[in-house]
């Protein structure tokens, strides 16, 4: 099987899992994340948002295919669902009672979806401060990461009543090495 064929098969699985799921869209849009790992580098996460699930997946597939041609080894496709809007104070209370590095929901800090982050990004970039008595969000680390990744230009200014939106994701992992090994075994 080639990379395009595997990505097309994965697309059918994604559509079957999400097309009829309630609360799978945010403000009528589909929100997706593509995490790409290259050899000996950190994971690069790209955000996508489209009105149709098909457009979202097609753009993610094109980006993944290009990344594989440029040497990416692994990609993870995440599509957001199960949105929950709450104040920053209430979200903070949830984090304060979460075991370190175990927060898995993604979060949006703005309505334009520019600041959407996966739970893994929050943990890996040390944006969450677990076990703190009052504040769980390390705003300096958050702003640094968002600026470095080009998601914002100016730092965010968040207050306790700021509304944030959290979400779960449906995820699919695609490892080019496994597909290549399978392909080589099937077609010696």
How is this structure best summarized?
It is built from 6 helices and 5 strands.
Task: Describe this entry's structure for a reader.
With 188 residues, the protein is of the alpha+beta class. The protein is 37% helix and 26% strand. A five-stranded antiparallel beta sheet has the order 2-1-3-5-4. Helix 1 (3-18) packs antiparallel against helix 2. The longest helix has 17 residues, at 53-69. It is globular and about 50 Å long. The model is unreliable at 180-188 (pLDDT under 50).
Overall outline: globular
Tally of individual domains: 1
| Mean pLDDT over the full residue set | 82
Give the structural class: alpha+beta
Largest sheet: 5 strands, antiparallel
How many helical stretches? 6
Please compute the radius of gyration using only Cα atoms. 18 Å
The helical percent reads 25-40%
Strand content: 25-35%
């Amino acid at each position: 099987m080639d990379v395009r064929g595997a990505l097309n098969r994965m697309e059918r699985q994604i559509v079957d899992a999400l097309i009829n799921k309630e609360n799978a869209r945010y403000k009528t849009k589909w929100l997706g994340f593509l995490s790409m790992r290259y050899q000996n580098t950190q994971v690069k996460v790209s955000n996508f948002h489209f009105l149709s699930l098909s457009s979202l997946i097609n753009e993610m597939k094109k980006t993944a295919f290009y990344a594989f041609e440029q040497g990416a080894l692994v990609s993870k496709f995440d599509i957001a669902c199960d949105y929950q809007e709450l104040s920053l104070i209430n979200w903070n209370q949830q984090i304060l009672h979460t075991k370190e590095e175990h927060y898995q929901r993604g979060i949006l800090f703005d309505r334009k979806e520019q600041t959407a982050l996966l739970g893994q990004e929050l943990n890996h970039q040390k944006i969450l401060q677990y076990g703190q008595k009052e504040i769980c969000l390390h705003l300096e680390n958050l702003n640094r990461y968002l600026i470095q990744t080009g998601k914002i230009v100016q730092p965010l200014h968040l207050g306790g009543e700021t509304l944030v939106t959290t979400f779960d994701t449906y995820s699919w992992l695609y490892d080019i090495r496994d597909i290549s090994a399978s392909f080589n075994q099937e077609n010696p």
